[in-house]
Design a protein that fits this description.
Blueprint (H helix, E strand, L loop, with lengths): L14 H8 L14 E2 L27 H8 L3 E5 L2 E4 L1 H20 L3 E2 L5 E3 H7 L1 H4 L5 E4 L5 E4 L4 H9 L11 E10 L14 E11 L2 H22 L4 E4 L9 E8 L5 E5 L6 E3 L18 E15 L3 H4 L2 E3 L5 E3 L1 E8 H12 L16 E4 L8 H18 L7 E3 L7 H11 L3 E4 L11 E5 L4 E5 L1 H8 L6
Parallel strand pairs: 1-19, 4-8, 18-19, 18-20
Antiparallel strand pairs: 2-3, 5-7, 6-7, 8-9, 9-17, 10-11, 11-14, 12-13, 12-14, 14-17, 15-16, 20-21, 21-22
Helix pairs in contact: 1-10, 2-9, 3-7, 10-12
Length: 473
């Protein structure tokens, strides 16, 4: 700590010079510096003082889960219609970071990103048999010519048709791993729990095409490992469980679940990790592990990822073939792999947060650092505010990747304690405060690590050194 409290002497300044120094912002830094982000100007309508469920969205008597309440109170989402939400700017920032992490993991296993239409032809879905099978879950509509479509909840038919359209595909071009991140639609009969069970949501879906069953299983294991890596990087306590194939079909399926009381799925787990399954896959009441015979424990979970081995279920319908080494057409072996983007955001808040305070996976928090200057009228106000702005500017100059991840809480009519409480509720991983020790020589800032509860007292150099360890996608 002594090393961090290095001397930081300021040249003597008159009050007038301090005022001129501050005149460069709060809106902007000096010449060539990044623009300061002011909390008062962010579009994030806060309702942090709401108690219980008063004033929050929901039908009378309908329970609200933790993530739903916190996201509504924190100005992260706003209800539009049942199961549909406005995602406000901080949520979009978190989503974009999450998608960057997903891109890294998918491209590390050879994924190529594309984008497919939300409208899917009814003819494709009838050919696969899912137009009738999916029932009222599909949003169905017709164009002015009477042609029928659905809003895609998933895109197996569409991507297989796309690949089938390229009949000269060679085995040398396989494996083919195509993925997208798009809005999906599902006409939930009872949407609830905010982004955990909605009618409109974002999903990352990958579709793979391999030359043989053996190669397809290698792809399956590879993508499952990529999902493990993703959840490990986010610091989320997931379990991979055997699951039913449902309306997607295929011969093998696994879910990635975050254990949570509010989860809709019932899971059974071997305490030694030999066996894990969604109870819907079990025949009868299974109480012991088939490997070690230990008693299975039960829990509930939120499904955040799903993988399927499809075989030729869809490629045989659309005739998605490739040319073998013998120049013979052969059906591609397929798999599909989904991650719920918006569901991961909500589920991570659900499992990491306290009852009244959001906790994000640090990697995808909308903003990494909140700066809190002294209260207006306090004895530290003039010098402390200038020093804190200097730290903000020097930090974003030294660490440009944090320039857009740093927020200045300029609501100086409020006490530091009130703003710190709000920052805690909103889940900034770090909060830097110009408190009573800012007028010491050298000036010392109070730094809160919100995820650990640790409080440090650091010089400007110490703050920058600490923030240099912060990662953003």
């Amino acid at each position: 700590m002594a090393g961090l409290l290095r001397r930081w002497r300021l040249p003597a300044r008159t009050a007038g010079l301090l005022r001129r120094w501050r005149s460069c912002g709060p809106r902007h830094g000096g010449p060539g510096r990044a623009r300061r982000l002011l909390l008062s100007q962010l579009f994030q309508p806060l309702n942090l003082q709401v108690g219980g469920e008063a004033g929050l969205e929901g039908r009378p008597g309908e329970p609200l889960c933790r993530s739903q309440k916190l996201m509504l109170q924190g100005g992260l989402i706003h209800p539009a219609s049942p199961g549909c939400y406005y995602y406000l700017p901080p949520t979009v920032r978190a989503m974009e970071k999450l998608v960057k992490v997903m891109d890294e993991e998918m491209q590390a296993v050879g994924g190529q990103k594309l984008n497919m239409p939300s409208l899917s032809s009814a003819e494709l879905w009838r050919a696969s048999g899912r137009w009738e099978q999916m029932g009222p879950e599909l949003f169905r509509l017709a164009d002015r010519h009477g042609k029928r479509y659905c809003l895609g909840p998933t895109h197996e038919e569409a991507v297989t048709e796309l690949v089938a359209a390229h009949s000269n595909l060679s085995y040398k071009q396989l494996p083919l791993r195509l993925y997208q991140v798009t809005r999906k639609f599902r006409d939930e009969p009872k949407p609830r729990f905010g982004l955990l069970r909605g009618r409109e949501f974002y999903m990352k879906d990958m579709y793979t095409f391999d030359a043989s069953e053996e190669a397809a299983w290698q792809t399956y294991d590879l993508v499952c490992d990529a999902y493990r890596s993703l959840f490990d990087r986010l610091g989320l306590p997931f379990v991979k469980v055997r699951a039913a194939t449902g309306s997607i079909g295929g011969t093998m399926s696994h879910e990635f679940q975050l254990p949570a009381d509010v989860g809709e799925d019932r899971l059974v787990l071997c305490p030694d990790g030999h066996f894990a399954a969604n109870v819907e896959t079990l025949n009868g009441e299974q109480t012991s592990c088939p490997t070690c015979r230990e008693k299975l424990t039960q829990t509930r979970g939120i499904e955040v990822g799903h993988t399927f081995y499809l075989g030729t279920k869809y490629s045989s319908v659309s005739n998605a073939v490739f040319l073998s080494p013998e120049n013979k057409p052969q059906l591609a072996e397929m798999g599909c792999y989904g991650l719920g983007v918006t569901r991961i955001l909500a589920a991570s808040i659900e499992v990491l947060s306290k009852e009244d305070s959001i906790r994000w996976p640090s990697l995808i928090a909308p903003y990494q650092v909140c700066f809190i200057p002294p209260k207006k009228g306090s004895k530290e106000e003039e010098e402390g505010a200038a020093l804190l702005e200097r730290v903000y500017d020097d930090l974003t100059e030294a660490l440009p990747h944090l320039a857009g991840d740093s927020v200045l809480d300029d609501r100086t009519q409020l006490t530091i304690g009130k703003r710190l409480k709000d920052a805690n509720k909103l889940g900034y991983p770090y909060v830097v405060i110009a408190g009573k020790r800012v007028c010491e020589d050298p000036p010392v800032f109070e730094v809160w690590n919100q995820n650990t509860g640790e409080v440090l007292f650091l010089t400007k150099e110490g703050v920058i050194e600490l923030m240099s360890k912060v990662q953003v996608p």
